Amino acid sequence: MNYLELLLRQTPFCQMLLATVWDGLDTWRRIDLFLLCRRRRLSLPQDVLQKAACDPNAVVRMLAIRHGHFSNQDNPELYACLKSDTSPLVKAAMKSGSWFMDAKDFEPLSHIERLGAIALADSLTEEAFAKFICDGLKNGTLPELEAAELVGEYVRNPALTENLMGEPEDGLDWYSLTKDFEAIWNLTTCTPWPVHHTIAWEFPLSNKNDPTGEYVLSDKIIDNMSEQALEALAYRQCRPLLKKLQQAPEKFGKKIHDAASSGADLHSRRKPAPDLTALWQDFDEFRTEIRVALEALKDQIAEAASRKRGLFG
Fold it and tell me: How far is the C-alpha of 126 from the C-alpha of 180, rounded, in Å?
């Protein structure tokens, strides 16, 4: 039997089992449990979350906050304890559930709180985020290095990009997603290359929800992009840019044409990427089996040592 599966089964009995064994888990197992639940979109019992929120390890407390719901109404004492927690990781987690609707929402936060809020967030308003980056650089209130780290944190949070690429509920939602998509790409026109290089190289070029098959970057954005960003997009085979290269090749430098050729060669040789979901599940199960085996071996060694002491003591 897969005992990890038993503990994570969403039934009253199995959740009672998990609450019973929680105190015996080490820090890494507790972290593994949270990350696995996040990947599989599973919930944890409230009493486990309350224990985790008081854990001596700040990472466990941080994950408990992001996985659960703690309010002043439900548990004033625990909520006050979390609000006064001195760990920057916990502070960031407490901010990560906020709605960042305006650029000013980011201003009161420290840099580590901003990083954590973005890294742990499931959603935010991209237009507000982009405005905060642009205004901060323009006004000198946001150092270039911090801006680059914040942008990188946003681009590399899969929950945010998946949310942006999600299925729109209606025409208004589609319009909002389009504007947010453009707001991120517009950072390649108004920020230094160190700030927006992760966008150019890693941010999605297409959106499955657009009737045409992709959000087409406007001519205004492409025409005002940095040269480095254009090279990255050419290498990534961005269709709107490739069309411009064909229609007006003289408008683009040799580096951009070379990048497009290199990208085309790589694209023609590239094999389809495998589905990693099953691999992750197999790895989780294998890791659990290895840990169970190691624990059993440790118990056997301890028992043998105890018997030896009994014989010769």
Answer: 5
